[in-house]
Amino acid sequence: MQELGITKYVSPDKLNTSSDSMQDSKIQEIATEIARSFENVHAKIRHAKELKDSIPDIKGGFLGISKETKKNEVRDQVSSILIDNQEELTNLSQNSIKFTCSSLQVASKMHKALAYLAAHGIKDVNGRVEMLSDECAESINEIVEQAYDFIKAQEAIEQKHESYERANTQFVNELSNFEIELDQQKKEQKKKDNEHREKLENLNKQLEKTCKSEEEQRKLFAKRIENDLATLNNGLCRLIDHNHKQLGDEIKLSNEALVRLGEMSKESQIENDRRLSGLTTSIEAEAKRLDGMFEVEIKRVDDMFTKVQNDFVKLTEDIKEYYTQVINVKRILIALTGSAVIVSIVAMVVVLVK
Question: For the segment 284-316, what is each residue's pLDDT rounded down to a tens digit?
């Protein structure tokens, strides 16, 4: 295309960096130059074809040049013109297509400019419109079609590129949002972990405090139980000792009464009978009095046990077992008390019988 003067205007790279108005002007000039170059080449080819068509009409030449010789010279001339211009036409088409398809921007503008020239012709130096030949228009249309295919291919590529860019941008944004969300979740999780750790620490402290308090209460409760049981044991021991002593005194008095009764029986059977009756009554009254006193003591002991049971309802099984033992002691005490009264009465009856 340098031979045709096309690249003297501007290079594709420089054209892409020009302003829109400058691009349109340069594109129009280059398109016109390409169309004019095609028109010139096709004009030469048409001239060669015309020479070829005139060969049959050639006659013998001057100075003895034969007819065949002149025909051969014309054939050679036609062949040379066709070969040169065909090669020039090929190079022109290739370079024009190469320039036109150098970029999407150039291809789009060249497509419009060449299509316009093919349909409306070009202006000569005098401003007159000169329509292009059919051969020239066909060559230009080939470039237009190549430009159209290139434009569609580039648009598809750019659409894919834009799609990739959008997808990449979306991916980057989603990744950034995910990282932000993940960082936020980590912070929230760390906050929750700290809160849980603080709660666990507080619960552990509270549990330790509660366990310590319960241990102290358990020890205090056990101490109170121990003191109460000791007090109860002491009271029971004192009660048993007192009852035994009182029972011994009563038995002693009964024996003394029986001795006196025996002595009195020797003096007078009647008096003895009278006294025996009174003594029997006295013994029965004394026995009733002792029974009443023992019932009072037993009721007092029962009330004490009832109070202890009400105060220590929540005692453990060991303390319940101890209470069972205490109840057994109470029953033994009752049995001992009842046995003592029976022994006293039997002794009196034996003496009277004698």
Answer: 777 677 777 767 777 776 777 677 667 666 766
Please give the single-letter amino acid code of residue 103.
S
Tell me how many degrees the CA angle 9-10-15 measures, rounded to the nearest 5.
140
Q: What is the pTM of this model?
A: 0.41
Given a contact cutoff of 8 angstroms between Cβ atoms, the answer to whether 109 and 24 are in contact is: yes
CA distance 151 to 134: 25
Domain boundaries, the chain: 12-132, 217-353
Q: What is the average pLDDT across 208-217?
A: 76
Query: How far is the C-alpha of 207 from the C-alpha of 211, rounded, in Å?
Result: 6
Is the Cβ–Cβ distance between 145 and 107 less than 8 Å? no
CA 350 to chain centre: 99
Burial class (CB in 10 A: 0-12, 13-18, 19+), 106: buried
- The torsion angle over the Cα atoms of residues 36, 42, 44 and 49, rounded to 10 degrees, is -160
